[in-house]
Amino acid sequence: MTGPITAGVDGTDESLAALAWAAREAVRRDAALRVVHAWRFQPNAAADVADREAQERWVRDAVGRTMATLAERHPALSVTADVHEGDPVESLVAAAAEAELLALGSRGHGAVVGFLLGSVGRQVIDRAARPVVLVRAGDRASSEAAGREIVVGQHGEPEDSAPALRFAFETAAARGAGVRAVRAWTLPPVFAYSPASLKLLDEAGGLEPYEKKALAEALQPWRERFPDVPVVQHVEMGSAGQVLLSVAGRAQLMVVGRRAHRTAVGARIGSVAHGVLHHADCPVAVVPHD
């Protein structure tokens, strides 16, 4: 039994776009939808909601209106709401652990603007044990039109990208979409070559054929598991972030892996995921490594 599709909401346009995205995905996957709203008491709020009980009533009324709208749009969808006072990060991380995926809103591009770079969104992405999908306020169902692909980044050995590939193929199968698997490569310093690596490159016929072979090997088990999903193999020289963004215009969803790196100032999700989250126009799924 799979978990629900979960959306974190806070009343903003971005979170409502994420909720709409999550509802459509739940319908496609024949899954339940869970709406999570964690709130904190604001002692300096307006006079009509100045006390704790009034604020909680206001929050629950707002979520109730959202639930009513969902029922009108998707009458057959099973929807539950979880509203409670508490830390948003802890609430969303806990909700993600029980979910198939967690959808959150993201305000837009740039180094300063956006829920994505706020403490809540960043910490949830860093800590969530399940895929987190970031959705912008302008996202519409039309962005999922036929012909638009699920774009997924692949790197390293097959096992390094297996969770991201699995998520991409599962999503494509649910949507009747194709997958564009992207592997970027760069020329390494000549001194990085070992005799063993030189032998492998020579057997593969050079660097680019070697990269194409590596991508094909990573995709093979997923092609076999999802034979009806069309696949395009995209191998290009360049930085992974730049290559992924160069094909973002084709995408209805971008999928990138995440292996968090802990530092003295907190977790870092990696430069590729960071760049794609900032600049891709489509929703972006960040998938943690198993």
UniProtKB/TrEMBL annotation:
<dbReference type="InterPro" id="IPR006015">
    <property type="entry name" value="Universal_stress_UspA"/>
</dbReference>
<dbReference type="InterPro" id="IPR006016">
    <property type="entry name" value="UspA"/>
</dbReference>
<comment type="similarity">
    <text>Belongs to the universal stress protein A family.</text>
</comment>
<protein>
    <submittedName>
        <fullName>Universal stress protein</fullName>
    </submittedName>
</protein>
<feature type="domain" description="UspA">
    <location>
        <begin position="1"/>
        <end position="136"/>
    </location>
</feature>
<feature type="domain" description="UspA">
    <location>
        <begin position="150"/>
        <end position="288"/>
    </location>
</feature>
<dbReference type="Pfam" id="PF00582">
    <property type="entry name" value="Usp"/>
</dbReference>
<dbReference type="InterPro" id="IPR014729">
    <property type="entry name" value="Rossmann-like_a/b/a_fold"/>
</dbReference>
